[in-house]
Amino acid sequence: MANKAARIAELSQRAVEMQASPIRRLVPLADAAKKRGTKVYHLNIGQPDIITPDEIMQAVRHFDEKVLAYGPSQGLLALREEIRKYFHRFDINVGVDEIVVTTGGSEAILFALMAIGDAGDEVLVPEPFYTNYNGFATMAAMKLVPVPTKIEDGFSMPAREEFEKRITPRTRAIMYCSPNNPTGAIFSRDDLKMLTELAVDRNLWIMADEVYREFTYDGRVHTSILSFPEVADRAICLDSISKRFSACGARIGCLISKNTDIIASALKLGQARLCPPTIEQMGAIAGYQVLD
Ligand SMILES: Cc1ncc(COP(=O)(O)O)c(C=O)c1O
């Protein structure tokens, strides 16, 4: 009989494979450099260096309910209404029922992956990409398949053939981020048109991380995946207030899709975690109202 005292319960494969965030790994090194008197520019983390709008802070400070209760799993209707109005500014019509408020854009990405793929399924992603995509894919037991972009051509969208030659029977989606973190590349309407045609031809989902929508410079414009009606049934937009309002600690994001199965699936995942943070949703409402 095995020696019971010597046996240690094993960790899951998932826990072993899960990457420690390289973003966080750099923190002690940066702290040590600062102690040595070195000026450190924090390019490792997307933390805006502007103050959070006072309206958001005031809304949080003035939260005066008697009970900090669970809210709706889909998010407060008042916040979904503000998000609807925000998109309307870009001539994009989304209904409040097409939005699931999440605990940061991070949870929206995780919910989207879990809704569209099973263990071992693959997602094509232009590379370099936001490092935490690796962590979300590990949580969902899925595999990211990088499609390289090159510094020589401004990290622009790879050609259709580059995606096509990596498609396998396990490929479920194309995920991209525009403006991209870490490259800053903005994918044009033509780039996205190519992706939408590919997604339709090969029956793939499209996951669009648009958390940096406002971070466009030199006259460039951001194009949302939600502005392509031909992929309305297969597009999932992943969004967040973290960068938009310099409110990273609020942990408020959302998943948007016109596909009712995606919304129903995200909602079931959302019901398991009960609800996104209530007070911060009040802050987010105030943030969106600043734009009115
Ligand atoms: C590209 C990208 N997507 C998503 C996120 C997640 O943001 P949050 O969970 O704070 O909304 C980040 C955060 O840095 C990011 O850079």
Structural description of this entry:
- The chain has 292 residues and is of the alpha/beta class.
- The protein folds into two domains: 10-45, no CATH class; 54-290, Type I PLP-dependent aspartate aminotransferase-like (Major domain) (Aspartate Aminotransferase, domain 2, 3-Layer(aba) Sandwich), CATH 3.40.640.
- It contains ten helices and seven strands.
- Helix 3 (54-61) packs antiparallel against helix 10.
- The longest helix is centred in the N-terminal third of the chain and has 14 residues, at 22-35.
- It is globular.
- 38% of the residues are buried.
- The model has no long low-confidence stretch (mean pLDDT 95).
- Residues 46, 104-106, 130, 177, 181, 209, 211, 240, 242, 248, 253 line the site of pyridoxal-5'-phosphate (PLP).
Rg over alpha carbons: 20 Å
Number of strands: 7
Could you describe the largest sheet, including whether it forms a barrel? 7 strands, mixed
Q: What is the CATH topology classification name of the largest domain? A: Aspartate Aminotransferase, domain 2
CATH fourth-tier homologous superfamily of the largest domain: Type I PLP-dependent aspartate aminotransferase-like (Major domain)
Distance between the termini: 71 Å
Small-molecule binders:
pyridoxal-5'-phosphate
* Overall helicity: 25-40%
The dominant shape is: globular
- Provide the CATH architecture of the largest domain: 3-Layer(aba) Sandwich
